[in-house]
Amino acid sequence: MNYSTFYESIVKVVYIESSVAHGEVAQRLLRRLPRVRTRIVDGPHAVAPSDRRGTTLYLTPHRGAAVARCPGSKGHLCCNYLTVDLYSGCPIGCTYCIMRSYLNFSPVAIVAEPRPIIDAIVRVAEANPDTMIRVGSGETGDSLLFDPLCELSRPIVSALAEHKNVFFEMKTKTDLVDHLLDIERKGNAVVGFSVGPQTVIDGEEGTAVSLEARLQAARRAACAGFMVSFHFDPMFYRPDWQELYFPVADALARFRNDRVAWISLGTFRYPPQLKECVAPRAYLYGEFVRSVDGKYRYLQRVRREMYRIMRERILAAVRTPVYLCMESEAVWNRAFGAAPGQLDAVATLFKRPEL
Ligand code: SF4
Prior knowledge:
The chain is of the alpha/beta class. It is built from twelve helices and 16 strands. The strands form three sheets. The chain has an eight-stranded mixed sheet.
């Protein structure tokens, strides 16, 4: 299946805001989706109610801050990751997707011009020359699902390659990396993969590709000179969780000799609104406590054991910084024996850049 056939199967309509209709990305969309219905409009209000869904693309000028801090979570240690919104919204359809509870514009919004984003990242990099700038496009959608179609990541990777302190991460549950492999200068660009047991992928991750397909894509990216990263997030607790997650950790040994930028762990958590947005799932009926940020998390002793055991297992497979996503200092101390600031490799990742 070529890219056009693939995208014609998942995109039913493309809306393009008139101010960006003559730009390169708009023209690329029109050229590559000749059989998909297209409408030029003045703003998001013009999207028909029947098109407010993930099969609609909405090409928009950039609005708001081009680089933002990851929102973090009250009472939890933030990893000081920076985010850029290239693709907001996602039709993959994970049952646990937190965006179900806060994105109220359900088409996939795509920025029409990467230049403001590049300029903003470069400004941050130059203002913080001694700080590792970790910045990613996978916060509000999948970084790569529509990237072969729109090609927003390519100019960003190329432009940031000369900035040694910038680690631009593209996070995905797809295997769509091949359009990036021939980028000549990749610098410290990172292709990040969400990983988990195949049974969880089958049951909860909609149209995401298999674990093996993700790992093979990671191999292609690593062989082409990208850094790679892996995210065990969300990890679900069940009595047999080790049987499910250990083989995934062990599989990372294939990347022992590659540049693995980092690996993150995060157990399943959810805001109360998510429960109202998803069909009943077995994982919602575990034992949870409400944290200070209002989200429900597994009991602390469950989380810290999962983190401690998984970190050991991962480090036996591949040497790289392993960090926790949105966890309390108490959990860090009990799971990893120290707060991130006291763990050398992680402290470098967590340094806070000035914006
Ligand atoms: S891939 Fe990510 S953004 Fe897309 S539905 Fe799944 S969790 Fe949500």
